[in-house]
Amino acid sequence: MTAIGEYIKTLKISDFTMASTVDVLASGYNDVAVYQVPVRQRIFVGNGRINLGVDDRGTLKVDLQTSAPANIPGVSRLLYRDANGLKSDFLREDISIDATAGVKVGIGGKTGNEGKITFAPQYDFIVIQYQSESDAVVSKADSVIYLPVTIQAF
């Protein structure tokens, strides 16, 4: 299908489906937040690029907090999952994200998995998983998620 429009957006924690509290374990990755791609859209993770020395990439930030609030140290994983939940494509694994500054994520860059331009089609899911250093309970109200994306409507 041919895209009829393209725009950039930053998905925030309120855009994701996420329980008010989520258990994260040190023993493996846990789904923390899930976003379903709306009908007649496809979504690329990341926006912007480094061009002629100018870095206009969006910033990915995953700052998970307890209700205290206290930062939950750990590692994030970002993936696409098909609408049936049967197939997952990992975009970025084992990202230790600086909870304060975040990490730049563009399309077509030279770091991480940005050179592989894949997208989540309509009805598929963008999933953020987390593995904490020790078992903890995430409080949605005290946490922050910013995920820069490029959206194509068709």
SSE layout:
Layout lengths: L4 E8 L8 E4 L5 E7 L4 E5 L4 E2 L2 E2 L2 E6 L10 E8 L6 E8 L7 E3 L19 E8 L3 E4 L4 E10 L1
Overview features:
13 strands; mainly beta; 154 residues; 5-stranded antiparallel sheet; Jelly Rolls
Which CATH C-level class is it? Answer: Mainly Beta
**SSE-based structural type:** mainly beta
Number of helices: 0
> Architecture, CATH level 2?
Sandwich
pLDDT < 50 runs, ≥5 residues:
109-115
- Write the H/E string, N to C: EEEEEEEEEEEEE
Average pLDDT level: 86
Please identify the oligomeric state.
Answer: single chain
How much strand content do the residues show? over 45%
First-residue to last-residue Cα separation? 7 Å
User: Which fold name fills CATH's third level, the topology?
Assistant: Jelly Rolls
The major beta sheet can be summarized as: 5 strands, antiparallel
Helix content: under 10%
In one word, what is the shape? globular
Describe this structure as you would to a colleague:
This protein has 154 residues and is mainly beta. Strands 1, 4, 7, 10 and 13 form a five-stranded antiparallel β-sheet that branches. A four-stranded antiparallel β-sheet has the order 3-11-8-9, with no helix packed on it. It has a two-stranded antiparallel ribbon with strand order 2-12. The chain is built from no helices and 13 strands. The chain has a single domain, classed as Sandwich (Jelly Rolls). It starts with a strand and ends with a strand. About 5% of the residues have low confidence. The radius of gyration is 15 Å and the shape is globular. 0% of the residues lie in helices and 49% in strands.
